[in-house]
Amino acid sequence: MEQQVPVLIIGGSLVGLTTSMLLGRHGVRHILVERHRGTAIHPRAAAFHQRTMEIFRDGGVQQAVEQAADKEFVQDGSILSVDSLSGKELAYYYHSMNEGVEHLSPARRLFITQIGLEPVLRARASALGADLRYATELLDFTQDDKGVVATIRPRDGGDEQHIRARYLIGADGAHSPVRRALGIKMEGRGDFAQCATIYFKADFRALLRGRNMSVVYVNQPGQLAFFRFAITGDAGFLAVFATFDEQGRPDNRLREGLTSERAVEMVRAALGVPADFPISVENIQPWTATAATAAVFRKGNAFLAGDAAHLMPPTGGFGGNTGVADAHNLAWKIAMVLDGRADAALLDSYEAERRPMAALTVEQAYRRYVERVDPSLPAQDLADNLSDTAIELGAVYHSDALIGSDADIVLTQEPDDRSGRVGVRLAHHWIERDGQRGSTLDLAGPGFTLLAGPGGKAWVEAAGGVEDLGCHQFTNESDAAAIGLPEDGALLLRPDAVVGWRSGQGAQASEAVLTDALRQLTGRAA
Predict the structure, then answer these.
(1) In terms of Cα–Cα distance, which of 425, 421, 448, 423 is closest to 332?
(2) Arithmetic mean of pLDDT, 227-237
(3) What is the chain's mean pLDDT, rounded?
(4) How does DSSP classify residue 426?
(5) pLDDT for residue 500
(6) Under a CB-based contact definition with an 8 Å cutoff, are residues 499 and 491 in contact?
(7) For the chain, what percentages of helix, strand and coil (3-state, to nearest 5) are there?
(8) Which CATH class is domain 189-290?
(9) Model pTM?
(10) pLDDT at 494
(11) SS (H, E, C) 116-133
């Protein structure tokens, strides 16, 4: 007997839980299957960017995430390079994580481990009606013209179950069984370093010397690595990218596996402490540094998101954030197709919008790896350097789910550009609405929203005759200008706060103009 559900998510870590939360926010019934027994037990992704925090704001968990983060880390720390924690500072990449970017978003960058974050997302997804099935594995799935039929089984025993879903989302990590089953290849540089993360306990508070450090890169003749420290100053992890012998040649001990004794030596060297300094190694996790993007993000009714779709080194902290952006882009589109507000053609825009941005981000992470960690890697074909803010907040999408997005092919812009360009996240600006202070980003709703300038009364009147179209008219000219909205103009804002359409110069406001625009934006144009 088959159980039927609109969406089946495979993978219940960061990206799977975010997808679940966002689908729940849009009222989409779904089942999430995760083979592990619960949320993360290792820190994994820890740096979360402003755009990710905006998405968590959209999901209703920004405050809860911030509170959980403050229990784990002192926020707004520096990112720097040292020869050891007790030794010389070599370079600062950031003196403060949020320095100079506070005006760009209603949210701040923050550090929180997936140990702290995932329970927040899980609780929110559950509150929104998610059917979360931990300790359950996907055995296989098939596709037909009606969707996907998956076979799952509880890992603790029990009968196999068959789930029929209209759509399947593979958010099942770097070694994605969904991606393999679909036969989708990874493209790009591939594996380039064998690495290991050492989780340890030690009282290193005196070595901090009052410094608030979020990420500490360690550049030594014997190893290349980075630290992250717990707020208590007595625990952390050292992610080791490479080790070298006395002649400076790469050795294979990371590939072959580390003993606890060797791991203690490496942590001591990175801390810059003597051989009798007490250190307890709690866990060692090997991993591979990779730069690759899935050839396609969709096959039939199955989609890839997160590490299943793209793999990148941790330099820049882009990996988990890129996956959260995938979830945000896909969830509202699936919701609109399922409830009949959009044609299934809208779903083609997921790959068109997210894959180019993911591939760009992979290359930016690799460039930062070469610059910050291992200059010996091939550097002749490095991508041009883009600012972190352009990558985090300045994605420029191009797809058939946008009107007028093909003027040029740039994929990013600086978020200080407030032109209201089609395909770009709406600029953040603080406004008063219903007597309360909020962000312009909060104007995005579950459907499309018309934003009209102070002189755009005709647009507001036209919007009143269009079904399921939200509307907000700015009364202050400076507020409108802050998001690139002409005095008598209009924008159509997608549910993901991306500008989908803008009125041309001298355009006449009418229900027909707006209806035609919405038909194009939802894949229903003739």
Answers:
(1) 448
(2) 89
(3) 94
(4) P
(5) 98
(6) yes
(7) 30, 30, 40
(8) alpha beta
(9) 0.95
(10) 98
(11) HHHHHHHHHHHHCCCEEE
Q: CATH number of the domain at 2-74+109-187+291-383, out of 3.30.565.10, 3.30.70.1150, 2.10.70.10, 3.50.50.60?
A: 3.50.50.60
Place of tokens 């007597």: 435
Give burial (CB, 10 Å; 0-12/13-18/19+) of 436: exposed
Is the pLDDT at 252 greater than 90? The verdict is no
Q: How confident is the model at residue 504 (pLDDT cuts 50, 70, 90)?
A: confident
What does the domain layout of the chain look like in residue ranges?
Answer: 2-74+109-187+291-383, 189-290, 425-521
> Within 13 Å of residue 237, how many CA atoms lie on the same side as its CB?
19
Q: Is 92 an active-site residue?
A: no
* Encoded tokens for 513: 């103009």
Query: Mind listing the pLDDT tens digit for each residue in 215-225?
Result: 899 999 999 99
Crossing angle for the helix pair 14-25 and 319-338, to the nearest 10 degrees: 30
Report the C-alpha gap between 479 and 431 in whole angstroms.
7
Contact predicate 168/302, CB 8 Å: yes
| CA-derived radius of gyration, the chain | 24
| pLDDT score at 257 | 72
Structure tokens, 292: 């690759």
**73 and 214 Cβ atoms separated by less than 8 Å:** yes
Q: Give the rounded percent of residues in the chain with a pLDDT score beyond 70.
A: 98
Asked if the domains 2-74+109-187+291-383 and 425-521 are classified in one and the same CATH topology, the answer is no
Tell whether the model's pLDDT for residue 415 goes beyond 80. Answer: yes
For the domain made up of 425-521, give the CATH fold: Glutaredoxin (3.40.30)
pLDDT at 125: 99
The values of phi and psi at residue 476, to 5°, are: -105, 125
Q: Of 199, 217, 350, 366, which residue is the catalytic one?
A: 217
286-325 residues labelled b (16+ CB within 10 A) or e (exposed): eeebbbbbbebbbbebbbbbbbbbbbbbbbbbbbbbbbbb
Sheet holding 78-82, edge to edge: 89-94, 78-82, 213-219, 223-229, 235-243, 186-201, 280-294, 310-311
More confident residue, 211 or 328: 328
Q: Are strands 78-82 and 89-94 parallel, antiparallel or unpaired?
A: antiparallel
pLDDT at 465 over 70: yes
* pLDDT, position 506: 65
**Percent of the chain scored above 90 by pLDDT?**
81
The residue assigned the tokens 């959209």 is 58
Among 433, 437, 360, which residue's Cα sits nearest to residue 391? 360
**pLDDT above 90 (res 86):** yes
Query: CA-to-CA distance for 345 and 362, rounded, in angstroms?
Result: 27
Identity of the residue numbered 104: L
- pLDDT at res. 98: 93
Tokens of residue 52, six digits = 């990710």
Range list of H helices, 148-243 = 177-182, 205-208
